[in-house]
Design goal:
By secondary structure, the chain is α+β, with helices and mostly antiparallel strands. The protein has a three-stranded antiparallel β-sheet. The longest helix is centred in the N-terminal third of the chain and has 11 residues. Its cofactor is [4Fe-4S] cluster.
């Protein structure tokens, strides 16, 4: 198990930056214990991080983690 990316670079999996978390998700893609990892994290109610290729925020799986601070006013994803 020590050869797994999450064991070699754990800081990537708990980063604040959405971009870094996406890198961590990519490292999870070929992991042989991906499903067990996510199931264990959900069972333990892990508060945050990348587990089994999914991002957890507040113990819930989210598609994307929002960056810190207020969103830009010209962000096309924001509907006024």
């Amino acid at each position: 198990m020590s050869h797994l990316p999450c064991r070699q670079e754990p800081d990537l999996f708990f980063a604040e930056s959405p971009r870094v978390l996406e890198q961590a998700q990519a490292l999870c893609a070929g992991c042989p214990v991906q499903e067990l990892c996510l199931a264990g994290a959900l069972e333990r109610r892990e508060p945050h991080g990348v587990w089994g290729g999914k991002i957890l925020v507040g113990g819930q799986v989210v598609e994307h983690k929002r960056g810190r601070g207020r969103p830009r006013k010209d962000d096309p994803r924001i509907v006024a």
